[in-house]
UniProtKB/TrEMBL annotation:
Family: Belongs to the aldo/keto reductase family.
Species of provenance: Streptococcus downei MFe28
Domain NADP-dependent oxidoreductase: 30-99
Entry EC number(s): 1.1.1.274
Name of the encoding gene: dkgA_2
Molecular function per GO: 2,5-didehydrogluconate reductase activity
Signal peptide: none
InterPro entries linked to this entry: AKR, NAD(P)_OxRdtase_dom_sf, NADP_OxRdtase_dom
Keywords: NADP, Oxidoreductase
Name the UniProt record assigns to this protein: Aldo/keto reductase family protein
Record Pfam families: Aldo_ket_red (PF00248)
Length: 109
């Protein structure tokens, strides 16, 4: 699960069955220029946050556990700094609409 492949049906199934949905690659492995995505960057600018922080906050507000990978201490600290703001309903809807319903490697689950 990541911003561009939100797996909404699977997420609904996990909620209905009390299974915690997780995102093991919340940034989609950095593919599709996710860190320079103009709509996500615009949302980040509004809150004074980075694209990564907007994505992690979105995933968290959707009730998903995000597991971002980083070996850089400054990125790890940035990834934790997502609990001092909340995305508006309009921003949530904008991010939901970014779902391409296609996995990173061309297959769907």
């Amino acid at each position: 699960m990541h911003l561009l492949h939100q797996q909404k049906a699977l997420h609904a199934f996990t909620k209905e069955n009390q299974i915690q949905f997780e995102s093991w690659a919340p940034f989609g492995e950095g593919k599709r220029d996710i860190f320079t995505n103009p709509p996500v960057k615009a949302i980040g600018d509004k809150y004074g946050k980075t694209v990564a922080q907007v994505i992690l906050r979105f995933i968290t507000q959707e009730g998903v556990v995000a597991i971002p990978k980083s070996i850089h201490p400054e990125q790890m600290a940035e990834n934790f700094a997502i609990f001092d703001f909340e995305l508006s309903p309009q921003d949530i809807e904008t991010l939901r609409q970014m779902d391409e319903e296609k996995g990173l490697f061309g297959w769907n689950v």
